[in-house]
Amino acid sequence: MSKILVKDLDGVRVISFNRPEKRNALDLDMYRQLTEYLMQGESDNDIRAFLLTGEANCFTSGNDVADFLQNSELGPNHPAVRFLYCLLELRKPLVAAVSGSAVGIGTTLLLHCDLVYADNSAKFQLPFVNLALVPEAGASILLPELVGYQKAAELLLLAEPFDAETALSLKLINALCSKEELQQTALDKARKLASQPPQALQQTRQLMRPHKHRVQHQMHLELEAFGERLKSDEAKARFQAFLTKS
């Protein structure tokens, strides 16, 4: 069974996390597939928008910690690193449908989406400091810009989970949907994007993101710090406790 599912519908490439036994935790192979499917869609003129979602009423519980620890050298060819930079370089719009857990990368990748929809079961968390790590995906600059410094400090430094209504109030998501309507709502919005004039859509998207190089630089700084933290004694202790608990 593939851990990443993909189907193309009316100009929309729907990419689904499909590892329910691990609450859709992302391992390195899944990162490789995600990047491949996004890059293929970027070069395919028939694909005009992307939709990210999760199977089994879960978006993603974040990184597969054990797999990540075995592959902790965060060079440019590391699958997770390539995925993060791929998100930053996308020209075509990205929509997300969030149900259940959206932890770590499950929340930070939403900062790169154009439209995000969630149901009331969605639970978000940025537990990097809890694991003696630092944020990734440019979250240390994108989140304060979105919600203000004090709220970003609360989310990143206290690292407590928050619900979908809080995410809506923070403008991290566009709208709340019922569980039954979530997937169809997100797909309908992605189809609407796919029906727009593609060049105008992509240029407008680029004009709305004038600080891409600044975010790229911040991502580089984050990854340097993340790699250092992975090797630290306090991170090793936190990971060991996490793996023992899970």
From TrEMBL:
InterPro entries: ClpP/crotonase-like_dom_sf (IPR029045), ECH/Chromodomain_protein (IPR051053), Enoyl-CoA_hydra/iso (IPR001753)
EC number per UniProt: 4.2.1.17
A GO molecular-function annotation: enoyl-CoA hydratase activity
EC class (word): lyase
Keywords of this entry: Isomerase, Lyase, Peroxisome
Compartments, record wording: Peroxisome
Keyword Signal attributed: no
Chief location category: other
PANTHER family: ENOYL-COA DELTA ISOMERASE 2, PTHR43684
Record's protein name: Enoyl-CoA hydratase
Source organism of the structure: Shewanella amazonensis (strain ATCC BAA-1098 / SB2B)
